[in-house]
Amino acid sequence: MPIKTNFLLSDRRRTLLALFLALNFLVGCSPCNLQWESEVIKADYPPITYAKIYLPVCSTFKGIEAEFLFCNQDAQLFLNIFSLEFPDYTDSGYFEVKLRIDDQEYCYWAERFEGGQKLLLCDDATQLVISTLLVNCSIELSAGRYQAKLIPENFAKIYYEVTSPKRFQL
């Protein structure tokens, strides 16, 4: 009789595992409605104010979080991932990032930070992304196995609030 009980337990485990995987698949495939968010960061020493605009990641496993960091009027664009690292294929510390705007594809090399889960795009790529979003166009971004769609909805409003000269006064 104990053999049958063990069999039932393993059936129950298999059923729970199948339900868990099915639920995970359904949640992972559901559409993601993200919005740009902002945050102000004040440092005491040296006294300086930073502002951050970011589009949270839609999929933890294959998505990219886009994060703009502003100090005065200077902007930097970071790409963050939250699972496996960006592989270092070239041993150069740089990783290829592709931007698709309408039917045009742009390729840039981004600096890969130690730990492999953060990239810094060059100034040209950052300005291209900002100007594209400000004219209300979407951008498909890919870096290796990771992808993101940068949406223009509410970006301009937050961008102009964050880059206002008043924002950087202490």
CA-CA gap between termini:
76 Å
Low-confidence stretches: none
Strands of the largest sheet, in order across it? 1-2-3-4-7-6-5-8-9
Order of helices and strands: HEEEEEEEHEEH
Q: Using only CA atoms, what is the Rg?
A: 21 Å
- What oligomeric arrangement do these chains adopt? single chain
Number of domains: 2
Task: Walk me through the topology.
Layout: H1 2-29, E1 37-43, E2 48-55, E3 65-71, E4 74-80, E5 94-101, E6 104-112, E7 118-120, H2 123-134, E8 139-143, E9 146-150, H3 155-162
Antiparallel strand pairs: 1-2, 2-3, 3-4, 4-7, 5-6, 5-8, 6-7, 8-9
Describe this protein with a few key phrases.
alpha+beta; 35% strand; Immunoglobulin-like; 170 residues; 2 domains; single chain; 9 strands; 9-stranded antiparallel beta sheet; 3 helices
Please sum up the structure shown.
This protein is an alpha+beta fold and 170 residues long. It contains three helices and nine strands.
Structural account:
Helix content is 28%, strand content 35%. The longest helix is centred in the first third of the chain and has 28 residues, at 2-29. The protein is built from three helices and nine strands; from the N terminus they run H-E-E-E-E-E-E-E-H-E-E-H. The protein has 170 residues and is of the alpha+beta class. The protein has helices spanning 2-29, 123-134, 155-162; strands spanning 37-43, 48-55, 65-71, 74-80, 94-101, 104-112, 118-120, 139-143, 146-150. Strand 3 (65-71) and strand 4 form a beta hairpin. The mean pLDDT is 81. The protein folds into two domains: 1-30; 37-168, Immunoglobulin-like (Sandwich). A nine-stranded antiparallel β-sheet has the order 1-2-3-4-7-6-5-8-9, covered by helices on one side. The radius of gyration is 21 Å and the shape is globular.
